[in-house]
Amino acid sequence: MKKDLLTEYDLELQDFTEIFQRAAFLKKLLYQKVSYTPLEGKSLGMIFDKSSTRTRISFEVGMFQLGGLAIYLNSRDIQAGRGESIADSARVMSRYLNGLMIRTSRHQDVEEYARHASIPVINGLTDYLHPCQILSDLFTIREKFGAHEGIRVAYLGDGNNVANSWLNVAARLPIHLTMACPAGYDPDQALLERARREAQGGVHLYRDPADAVLGAQVLYTDTWASMGWEAEKEERARVFAPYQVNEKLLAQAEPGALVMHCLPAYRDQEISSGVLDGPQSVIYDQAENRLHVQKAILEMLLKA
After folding, report:
1. Looking at residue 270, what DSSP letter applies?
2. What is the pLDDT of residues 80-107, one digit of tens each?
3. How confident is the model at residue 232 (pLDDT cuts 50, 70, 90)?
4. Rounded to whole angstroms, how far apart are CA atoms 176 and 201?
5. Is residue 269 within 8 Å of residue 244, measured between CB atoms?
6. Most distant CA pair in the chain: distance in Å?
7. pLDDT per position as a tens digit, 25-78
8. What are phi and psi of 99, to 5 degrees?
9. What angle do CA 212, 216, 220 make, to 5 degrees?
10. Are residues 178 and 204 in contact, defined by beta-carbon separation less than 8 angstroms?
């Protein structure tokens, strides 16, 4: 039966467990330089409507390491960019490929691909959610703390797709999530309300970042102006200035708290260079883990 990865909320607890266990196994094999190619003869189409560093490289290299083929499809270069319907594109691609990964703006487009495709569809990023990123973040937390259960995460800054994904995860897993966002820049209200209802560890939204980081074991931030919001960059820099993850804010968190950022980072804006490069930063480990977690996702969805 076809299975997609469109949102973290749709994952069952055993799915999280399987992804994390397989990611750890695949990472170990890679470090031991052991060849493992369960996706030999399989192909992944990768549709990009947005520029990418980590998503493209990790999926492309991941498919190669698993023995498969990844095909880069710029949305401007395929017929969908000239008006072919998503339904027709999905049906045709399903005849050629074993899976689709899509990085685009509209979450509805990914959902429509999944409705009409007979192959698994993976949400590589939309303006609404970023599930592959957040699964990699959770895997990194498990590596550093030994488990994710009960961990206190503080998200600081824009209520964007990554913030929404943290809300979905908080509704499914026993973590404690605090958020600090300026008024007018909150995450999706429906996701926030659902997470508040269903979260085992609790979800709280603050205006003062000092309130959000109190007792936090992980401080997490993202760029203040995601792709598509460049015109608001100067205004956002002014509004978000008090939310910068810097040495002063980090000192108010739990001693030894880890710092995470999904990248790209704009140094000395949402995060100070001293913190980004400091001993409590696990940002580059976090980035590397995109490869291992996405390999686990690919194996899980494409191996059958």
Report:
1. T
2. 766 789 999 999 999 999 999 999 999 9
3. confident
4. 4
5. yes
6. 55
7. 999 999 999 999 999 999 999 999 988 999 999 999 999 999 999 999 997 878
8. -170, 160
9. 75
10. yes
As a whole number of angstroms, the distance between CA 86 and CA 131 comes to: 21
Residue 211 φ/ψ, nearest 5 degrees: -70, -40
Q: Please state the rounded mean pLDDT for residues 238-254.
A: 98
128-145 pLDDT, tens digit per residue, is 999 999 999 999 999 999
Query: What's the predicted TM-score (pTM) here?
Result: 0.96
Is the CB of residue 24 less than 8 Å from the CB of residue 294? no
Cis amide linkage into residue 255, ω under 30° from 0: no
Closest CA to 212 of 177, 183, 186, 240: 177
Q: Phi/psi class of residue 69: alpha, beta or left (left: φ > 0; alpha: ψ in -120 to 50)?
A: beta
For residues 70 and 62, what is the distance between their CA atoms, to the nearest angstrom?
A: 9
Torsion (CA) 63, 66, 67, 71 in degrees, nearest 10: -10
The enclosing H or E element of 238 equals helix 233-240
Q: Strand pairing partners for 258?
A: 218
Would you name the residues annotated as active-site residues?
103, 130, 133, 222, 262, 290
